[in-house]
Amino acid sequence: MLIERKWKKWVFFYVPMAFFIVFTLFPFYWMAVTAFRPDSELYHTWRQPNATPFWTLDPTLEHLHGLLRTTAFPNWLWNTMLIAIVSTVISLICGMFAGYALARLKFRGSEFLGTGIFITYLVPQTLLFIPLADIVRGMQLGNTPWALILTYPTFLIPFCTWLLMGYFKTIPKELEECARIDGATRFGAMVRIIFPVAVPGILSAGIFAFTLSWNEFIYALIFMSSAELKTVPVGVISELVRGDIFFWGQLMMGALLGSIPVAIVYSFFVEYYVTGLTGSVKG
Amino acid sequence: MKRLLENEKVLATALLAPGVTILVVFIAYPFLMALWFSLTSISVGDPGEFVGLDNFQRALEDTIFQTAFKNTVFYTFWATIFKLALGMWLALLLNRHFRFKRIVRASMLLPFIVPTVLSAWAWRWMFDPTFSVMNWSLFHLGLIEDRLPFLSSGDWAMWCAVVVNTWRGMPFFAITLLAGLQTISTELQEAAALDGANAWHRFWHVTWPLLLPVTLVVVVFSIIQTFSDFQLIYVLTGGGPANSTHLIATYAYQVGVNSGLLGEGAALSLFMFPVLFAVVWVQLRYLKRMDVR
């Protein structure tokens, strides 16, 4: 073991670690404090001496009431959740099938397809939003949840396929071969033998895909126009900023409530998420 | 039917069909459409006509676009450097043994999990000209006399965007590099220490070369995401003040969606393509090399 002195540990470990913790978490703390701070306290200018900016003396739920009264926030939350879950499930199924085919089956053009899928993985949403809006409109999907449910898989499928392909390759072929000798079909062996063994990988891909679709912004911004059909990130921007007026308390309450569900899902599956994250960049 | 699925080629086709269909309809086809749009004067409600490279020419002469392009390069360059440096540092810290390690590591990823648009609002509120907590703190610590123009000056705002992007992307670097670090055996470090290498030399001559492959991949991903970023600027400044903080993507949105000039907007987005293509090419070459090994 490398031994180090106490002062060194303070300088090289505790102090930098504290810096990272404060830097990372302060914005969330600030979001939470603002969400519960009464308006009278919120708008204290930066020069006022008696302000207590780092906490609040009388926390209030007025912003929560305001948010529920003036906006369709519960709808936004429900839309975000529904769209994230459905598009994740679609992408997982496509990714499992495609990943299996690329990892296990021999056919012409498999390498080409693998590379093709990998390239689509690297196409950012901001490159294609203009023609895509036109296509969505042409398919009569504009302003329906389907616009997002069908387009989110474009960035989720490549990722799921890539991750699961890697995972399937680590499963020994013998497992499948045994099942086939016992009379299982190829498809049956895949569904009943390989997929159950791959549950940890599938879970990783699913959690990661879920957080990605919860995060998506530009498609939701462009494809959805009715207030009650929006997702949380878009609704917060378009309904809580009216002209030049920012409803900061409600904005922060909305941001907080919109972050909590995804943070909860994440906290239950941290290890799977990390596997998904690190796997997402492995070749 | 059952017998047919036993054929590897048939089964492969059937399994790949759903995913590939979605990718072709919603990525390959829109890409071709983007190319076509960019060569026409199409706008909302008007199919327009073929105009050749006019849209690209106009973009190159457009001073707002020139600024947006410079901003995008600036933003990508500095944010990537900071994310790499801080992410590496954080990874090295997290690689040590300490109490509450799991919870600290989990909470470090929060900026990456929480929707960027939502956390960017918290930052915007922290940068608010009148009610900024940062101005308040600095003023009461006696460090400033007058408030800092965080988002009200173009130069300051670009740096603020770099800070927020770094804040958001650093965990991705840290956690991925940490995974890389964990595969490096500690014996190598100890051997180097016995040979008298100090901590910096151990990092530079042992850890860094071994981490290089992971680092390259993470940097490529980060460059793609940062170069094509939209959300952060959209929330923090909306491209203002006076169009001085646009990125390519936010300006393309303004032209293509807000003004409805689909052709010009598509051409503006396509300016991202050569850079992204170069980065992807590096990535693919690198992957090929991995396969050979």
List the helices and strands and how they pair.
The complex is a heterodimer of chains A (283) and B (293).
Chain A: H1 6-35, H2 39-42, H3 62-70, H4 73-104, H5 110-121, H6 125-138, H7 145-151, H8 153-169, H9 173-181, H10 186-197, H11 199-215, H12 218-223, H13 232-240, E1 241-242, E2 245-246, H14 248-268, H15 270-280
Antiparallel strand pairs in A: 1-2
Chain B: H1 2-6, H2 8-38, H3 54-61, H4 63-94, H5 101-108, H6 110-113, H7 116-126, H8 133-140, H9 154-182, H10 186-194, H11 199-227, H12 231-236, H13 248-258, H14 262-270, H15 273-292
Helix pairs in contact in B: 2-14, 4-9, 4-11, 9-11, 10-11, 11-15, 13-14
- How helical, in percent, are the residues of chain A? over 70%
Number of helices of chain A: 15
Uncertain segments of chain A are none
N- and C-termini, Cα separation of chain B: 41 Å
Shape annotation of chain A: globular
Q: Which architecture name of the largest domain in chain A does CATH use?
A: Orthogonal Bundle
Oligomer: heterodimer
The CATH architecture of chain B can be named as Orthogonal Bundle
- Please tell me the total number of domains of chain B: 1
Estimated share of beta-strand residues of chain B: under 5%
Helix-strand pattern of chain A: HHHHHHHHHHHHHEEHH
Number of helices of chain B: 15
Number of domains of chain A: 2
Share of helical residues of chain B: over 70%
Structural class of chain A: mainly alpha
Could you say what the CATH topology of the largest domain in chain A is called?
MetI-like fold
CATH class of chain B: Mainly Alpha
Give the strand tally of chain B: 0
- Estimated radius of gyration of chain A: 24 Å
